Please model this.
Amino acid sequence: MKRLHLLAASASLFLFFSIGAQCRDSSSAGVQSVSKKTAVTQCPGKAVSSDTVKHPPKTSAIVSSKASSQDTLIVIARLIEIPGKFPPNDLYNYVYIMKYRVMKVLWGAYPAQEILVGHYNPLIPRPQIKDKMAAFVSGNVAKFETGAKHKLVLVKPIERIWKDAVEDDYADSDLDKYYALKADVAQ
Model:
């Protein structure tokens, strides 16, 4: 049964990111709409009827069938702090926690102005991640730099995706920590 959920989650993730790549629009890429008659995926320029309700991308299906949409956020945020220096990737794989300032919440609810986000192996450009985590990392960010603006698809807690090394200089923070499933450069 668990293998079936994992296969379904992988297919859902592939569909989400391939749709996002096809749409090429940060405002609606990968957002699914469910109408009373059928489920469709929105791409820019397609009309949506008034009886259509938007739902988040199926990113929570990546983890398990029990993950709720309350665990998923899509935000536009500016990277305001990268504490310290990234460890080299030849030593071990890790998730590195960085601080962002939330500019706009596109999906979900997030009341705070700042958010802590973990990125898998941040020295590697997102499109070049080809290891076992490739199914859980996507986007077009080539380099993480303070001041950059990103569109982020986030899920919490990080442990749902990553259970190994986490470089976290914010251990004392009361803010929730999210894992970045997708990081795109935002305009």
Q: What stands out?
A: The longest helix spans residues 2-23. Confidence is low (pLDDT under 50) at residues 1-67. The beta strands are 32-34, 39-41, 53-55, 72-81, 95-107, 114-120, 138-139, 149-155, 166-167, 177-185. The chain has two domains: 2-62, 69-185.
